[in-house]
Amino acid sequence: MTSTAQELHPAPVLEPGRTILELRGLEKRYPGTHALKPVNLAFKSGEIHAIVGENGAGKSTLIKLLTGVMPRTSGEVVWEGQPAALATPHEAMALGINAVHQEVVLCRHLTVAANMFLGEENSRFGILQQRSMVRQAQKIIDDLGFDLPAHVTLGDLTIGQQQLIAAARATVRGTKFLIFDEPTAYLTRKEADQLFTLIRRLKGEGVTIIYISHRMEEVFELADRVSVLRDGMLVGTRNIAETNDAELVKMMINRSIEQVYHKEHFTPGAAIIEARNLSGKGFENVSMTVRAGEIVGLYGLIGAGRSEFVTTLYGRHRKSAGQILWAGKEVQVKSEHDAIKLGMALAPESRRDQGLCLNLPVGLNLNLPIYKRISNNLLISSAQEKTQADRQIADLRIKTPTRGALASSLSGGNQQKIVIGKWLAHGAKLFIFDEPTVGVDVGTKAEIYRLFGALLSKGAGIILISSYLPEVYELADTLHVFRRGKLVATHGFRGASHEDILTQALAEKQEKQGGQI
Amino acid sequence: MSTEAIAVEKPKRNYNVLFGLTLLALLVLLWIVLSVATPSFASSNNIANLLRQGSMIAIMAVGQTFVIITGGIDLSVGAVVGFATVVAAMMINAGFPIWLAILVTLLVGVAIGMFHGFGIVKMGLPPFIITLATLTSLRGIGLLMTNGNSININSDTFTAFSRSSFIGIPNLFWMVILVGIPAYIFLHHSRWGRYLFSVGSNAEASRLSGVNVQRTIYMAYTLSGLCAAFVGVLLAARIGIGNPTQAEGWELQAIASSVIGGTSLFGAVGSVHGPLLGAFILATINNGANLLNVNSFWQRIITGALIIIIVYFDGLRRRGK
After folding, report:
1. Which of A234, A357, A393, B187 is the most interior residue, by most CB within 10 Å?
2. Which domain holds residue B195?
3. Mean pLDDT, chain A, integer
4. Apex CA A250: angle with CA A247 and CA A255, to 5°?
5. What is the pLDDT of residues B89-103, one digit of tens each?
6. Best residue of B208, B264, B266, B318 to probe chain A, by most A CBs closer than 10 Å
7. B268 touches chain A (CB under 8 A)
8. Which of B1, B2, B318 would you mutate first to test chain A, the one with the most A CBs within 10 A?
9. B202-225 per-position pLDDT tens digit
């Protein structure tokens, strides 16, 4: 088991530790696409190796090949000195290769403990040893420092907490090689910290970690080395100490970082919507105004009441007190339908669950809010249906073969463009974006931000909810900080430091986040 | 989730057309084979009979398809047909004008569909449960109303309709066209049709996009109830009696026709021409098997096998193999 990484891969290699997994000319072709061009790369035991790249750069393909989900087209994978076929997920797991996916793939209706032991239940004479499993699961969770109960139903936890459980699950099965695919996409800062502690611990135990993320600061916080993929090609591998944000972004997209957060300032116009002492489920006494031409950012932890506040504005939940004023006049928003009629548009947080009809064509998804307008009382104008859809696809640069392709066949970033894009033709005045760039690569992010500018220039107002501070920080004209259902602070554009805003969002250090939401 | 390659998929419309043509070819093939195999098949009498047999299931299948596209199911349609024959028979025998009897029967179907919508939207019952409940209770209500007897309809004008033809084609088949064309326009060229698909694909996303999801669900079940009641009127005219136990198991034939016609039970996939062709394929198989003296038990087995084969190949095609 001698390392041949030096010969194959001349990139600087400083970490001690032997090579556990080596890719030699690993390649994947789909009909018509060269998803992964031959990659040579060696992973060492006990290293945290970040992989970055835009959507479509080949990261997912690489993961699928390593976890045995798909067969490779050519090349070799060497595991601990022996060639490995990696033909099935089972084989990968038997070797000790596991993955934690961005979207939790566990059984929501089973308990945390049942999920931890899924597939390897303890049983005696065929009878499940439920209590002992709960005890063991609880011990694992406690050991990892997660403050979560093992006996509750998984679905009762927040997405972030479920993600932690998924990570914990992956650590208990003799894992030697663990892949994290965008694990923090839905995590709060505190949950992310817990996850990082877990990852560092695994590293200490000699586990190799592959960490895939769009968030640069996480890569720099965690990783020892970082590899950049672009267009299915390995552009390069760097030691983390010898590189920086700017270099990595440049390698990923051939574009500088300033161009990502492209902020246009407009003079705010008249108030579009105003909340006066609004209270409802999950938040109380919130007042704020959104004017034409401005972005109002809402920052806070998941569960701090931001999403509840906007869904109440949008008519999903009833307000319990206070007023909503639209263009200066008090309105009652009793349903989403009312909200849309007034001129609001909501791009929800989870595009798969709330944003898209995945098994329907792109064109239908884009036109869904405007069918009323492009049809007379009886019939849809099919000419208009086509031109509207094609225009959106062109304007938003959605990468799709035709408007008839199914939404599910598009990449995450392009799906997100549909979720946002369908409101453009609708001509709304107020746009609410709930975590619009989760799981979206830098290039698409930049496009989405530019879209914000285009909306503002047309006199619209934007409410931007994000758990990613740099995003709201760099884009919001007014930034409201939420904590435990209350609006605790308000700042102007870059009006406070990152540290101050974080402190306001977190308040007391020991704040315990409500488990069930 | 980054999908590496944008899979190049053919536009859906083309696929639908292709699948429809495949079904049509299958139907024509069946007819050719049967004409050769048995001389009595191609007789005008038998063809007319076959069209009558298939027409009623076809109309039910169209309504059923609307429901299945929203991701639901309507198990009650067979019972609605039986119940509708009772309503129509009782009203005609009580001396009401035929047009009024038909109108009231159709309204009863609408009311049953509305009730299903109410149960699903307001009471939060699964479609399977609420329609299963009406399936059994409607038969019961019908039996109570008739004391378990059949009612002979004493109007010849009413019953003559189903036996006569217009330009050589049975009136019952004209009824398929009467239902099919508006249904096609509704499903593929009106926004309500689009909403059926979008609700079946993702109700939450549809609601956030301003689609009135509740109204869409009401509409689907109401149309299914209406189609079933209409078939009830046709059946009463055809056999000349009102009997609540009629049309036993027709709901399964309607669902089978719909599925053979390419409708996905997971919702958001379906058409109007598919279920119509599916219904006539089933009717042809039954008719042909009768003529060939195939044991009627075998007919059921053949139907089952056909469902598996067609849906399996359709699934393969959809997954792009």
Report:
1. A357
2. 44-316
3. 82
4. 145
5. 999 999 899 999 999
6. B208
7. yes
8. B2
9. 888 888 888 889 999 999 999 999
Residue B282 belongs to domain with CATH number: 1.10.3470
Could you report the per-residue pLDDT of B301-314, keeping only the tens digit for each? 888 888 788 778 77
pLDDT at A259: 65
CA distance A266 to A273: 17
Q: For the packed helices B273-291 and B12-37, what is the interaxial angle rounded to 10 degrees?
A: 10
Q: Do A354 and B208 touch (CB under 8 A)?
A: yes
pTM for this predicted structure: 0.74
Q: Do B100 and B155 touch, CB atoms closer than 8 A? A: no
Contacts of residue B64, defined as CB under 8 A and 6 or more positions apart, other chains included, come to: B74, B77, B224, B227, B251, B254, B255, B257, B258, B275
From chain B, the residues in CB contact with A376 under 8 A are none
Angle at B196 between CA B195 and CA B197, to 5 degrees: 90
Burial A230-248 (b: 16+ CB within 10 A, else e): bebbbbebbebeebeeeeb
| Residue A15: predicted pLDDT | 44
pLDDT (tens digit per residue) in A47-69: 999 998 876 678 888 888 998 88
Is there a domain that residue B26 lies in? Answer: no
Q: Give the residue from A27, A350, A357, A408 with the most B CB atoms within 10 Å of its CB, the best one to mutate.
A: A357
Query: How sure is the predictor about B5, in pLDDT bands with cuts at 50, 70 and 90?
Result: very low
Using DSSP's 3-state secondary structure scheme, residue A29 falls into: strand
On chain A, the residues whose CB falls within 8 A of the CB of B213 are none
Domain assignment of residue B181, yes or no: yes
Band of pLDDT at residue B104, cut at 50, 70 and 90: very high
Q: Do B8 and A336 touch (CB under 8 A)?
A: no
- Per-residue DSSP letter, B60: H
Amino acid at B114: M
Q: Does B18 touch chain A (CB under 8 A)?
A: no
Residue B85 lies in a domain: yes
The residue type of A470 is P
Structural domains for chain A = 260-343+430-436+460-511 (3.40.50.300), 351-427 (no CATH)
Chain A residues in contact with B215 by the CB 8 A cut-off are none
> In Å, what is the CA distance from B244 to each residue of A83, B114, B133, B141, B146?
70, 20, 16, 8, 8
**DSSP codes, A469-513:** HHHHHHH-SEEEEEETTEEEEEEETT-S-HHHHHHHHH-STTPPP
| Contact state of A412 with B208 under an 8 Å Cβ cutoff | no
Q: What is the pLDDT of residues A424-479, one digit of tens each?
A: 878 889 999 988 887 677 778 888 888 888 888 888 999 999 877 878 888 899 99
Chain A window 228-257: which residues touch B at a Cβ cutoff of 8 Å? 232
Half-sphere exposure (CA, 13 Å, Cβ side) for B215? 10
Asked whether the beta carbons of residue B9 and residue A103 sit closer than 8 angstroms, the reply is no
- Contact assessment for residue A374 and residue B189, using Cβ atoms and an 8 Å cutoff: no
Interacting residues of B300 by C-beta distance below 8 A, sequence separation 6+: none
Q: Classify residue B3: in a domain, yes or no.
A: no
Structure tokens, A412: 């995450």
CA angle at A291 for the pair A289 and A294, rounded to the nearest 5°: 110
Percent of chain A with pLDDT over 90: 14
Nearest to residue A175, comparing CAs of A83, A36, A51, A66? A66
Q: How many interface pairs between A and B have CB atoms less than 8 angstroms apart?
A: 138
Q: How many domains are contained in chain B? A: 1
Is B123 an interface residue toward A (CB < 8 Å)?
no
Question: How high is the pLDDT of residue B6?
Answer: 38
User: Which pLDDT tens digit goes with each residue over A298-333?
Assistant: 988 767 888 889 989 998 888 899 999 998 899 998
